[in-house]
Design a protein that fits this description.
Length: 185
């Protein structure tokens, strides 16, 4: 794994040891960011299933200013912090060990709106729709923001979830990518 583009292009990233995470391949990561960017002029990213931190680090490398990265596994938290240090991005990120739903409750209290929300949950434990419904109810996505979801190709996500509409859906082998934006009336 490496950073595909931006100011940290080419830097190698460590994977989380063991089999508890499924790293996004460089090819899929590049395709994902080409769909939603590929570059950003500032903003904040929320990554609720951080894994190695690769997707958030890619966003930071491509111009996002700040990342809040959450994972429930201690091995993942350690790997995220190592990868941020490798890329000299430690000061740009907050890293928390928590499960996604509890993390969202804590974030709601902070009244932050995100420009990019990344959801890459374990394929066997899908909670994508309920999380997106919470983002809708609590107004966590900025009006021009993007929700980027990586999921198994056999997961069929709804075209509309609350005020969000799926604007893009792609498949890359066993990996599906769906992109949501706020529906403009």
């Amino acid at each position: 794994m490496r950073v595909v583009s931006g100011k940290n292009k080419g830097l190698s990233l460590k994977a989380v040891p063991g089999m508890s995470t499924r790293p996004t391949t460089d090819k899929v990561k590049e395709a994902m960011f080409n769909i939603i960017g590929p570059y950003f002029e500032g903003g904040i990213v929320l990554d609720l299933f951080g894994g190695s931190g690769g997707l958030s680090i890619e966003a930071l490398s491509r111009g996002i200013e700040k990342a809040i990265i959450v994972d429930r596994e201690m091995k993942a938290i350690k790997t995220i912090k190592e990868n941020l240090a490798t890329c000299n991005l430690t000061d740009c990120a907050e890293v928390y060990r928590n499960d996604a739903e509890r993390a969202v409750k804590a974030i709601i209290k902070r009244e932050i709106q995100f420009d990019l929300i990344i959801l890459d949950p374990p394929y066997k434990k899908q909670q994508i729709v309920s999380l997106i419904e919470t983002f809708d109810e609590k107004n966590l996505l900025a009006s021009e923001g993007t929700i980027l979801v990586e999921h198994a190709t056999d997961v069929e996500l709804p075209e509309k979830i609350g005020k969000f509409v799926r604007t893009k859906s792609e498949k890359y082998g066993i990996c599906g990518v769906s992109v949501y934006h706020i529906r403009m009336e």
